[in-house]
Write a structure and sequence with these properties.
The complex is a heterodimer of chains A (about 120) and B (about 110).
Chain A lengths: L4 E3 L2 E4 L5 E6 L6 E7 L6 E7 L2 E5 L7 E4 L6 E5 L8 E8 L9 E2 L3 E5 L1
Parallel strand pairs in A: 2-11
Antiparallel strand pairs in A: 1-3, 3-8, 4-5, 4-9, 5-6, 7-8, 9-10, 9-11
Chain B lengths: L2 E4 L3 E5 L4 E3 L1 E4 L5 E7 L5 E7 L5 E3 L5 E5 L4 E6 L8 E8 L7 E2 L3 E6 L1
Parallel strand pairs in B: 2-12
Antiparallel strand pairs in B: 1-4, 3-9, 5-6, 5-10, 7-8, 8-9, 10-11, 10-12
């Protein structure tokens, strides 16, 4: 399978704990996006990378959130001191090239539940 | 700034009936428009996209959409739905060179036998 993969698929944690999610994009894709989707809503943009450079962060991304993409390959999204409001599906997508009309390929998502 | 409004949160329809899922967008600049589908426990999959040119766009699985600039709409249609079309459908726009997508709230298509 050469699609976008995310790990873990599900994560249950207690409030105040730190969590880290991983995304493996399609290998030749230089752009990688993170979105968050809450129940009954569409995905909301969080941040994106062009190769290893993080080029934009949404205001939704508080200072408890950090994302990296070392060497322009896989990416990690870390949430520190989780809060119940962080419960959501975290989606990763990758895209080839730098044109806004290119297709983004989405992974299956990581569902986070904060107790 | 761009925004997307999907006018129906749920659309129930019987199998083999036609369906239209409505999408309106707001933008002060030219946009690219997309429809994605999300099946249960799966990632979003692109159905179709509008870049420029012909306002009628054909996508996968028999879906099509019509871009209407004057009404700022991009409604999705299918002449005859199947049970397997039951899913969540998202309309999205991309306007900047970042490629980030702005999604609508989604429409749940429920196809009944």
């Amino acid at each position: 399978d050469t699609g976008v993969s995310q790990d873990p698929r599900h994560k249950i944690t207690k409030r105040g704990q730190n969590v880290t999610f991983r995304c493996d994009p399609i290998s030749e894709h230089n752009r990688l996006y993170w979105y968050r989707q809450t129940l009954g809503q569409g995905p909301e943009f969080l941040t994106y990378f062009q190769n290893e450079a993080q080029l934009e962060k949404s205001r939704l991304l508080s200072d408890r959130f950090s994302a990296e993409r070392p060497k322009g390959s896989f990416s990690t999204l870390e949430i520190q001191r989780t809060e119940q409001g962080d419960s959501a599906m975290y989606l990763c997508a990758s895209m080839e090239g730098g044109f806004a009309y290119n297709e983004q390929f989405f992974g299956p998502g990581t569902r986070l539940t904060v107790l | 700034a761009q925004s997307v409004t999907q006018l129906d949160s749920q659309v129930p329809v019987f199998e083999e009936a036609p369906v239209e899922l409505r999408c309106n967008y707001s933008s002060s600049v030219s946009v690219y428009l997309f429809w994605y589908v999300q099946y249960p426990n799966q990632g979003l999959q692109l159905l179709l996209k509008y870049l420029s040119g012909s306002t009628l766009v054909k996508g996968i699985n028999g879906f099509e959409a019509e871009f209407n600039k004057s009404q700022t709409s991009f409604h999705l249609r299918k002449p005859s739905v199947h049970i397997s079309d039951t899913a969540e459908y998202f309309c999205a726009v991309s306007a900047s060179n970042t490629g980030k997508l702005i999604f609508g709230q989604g429409t749940t298509l429920q196809v009944k036998p």
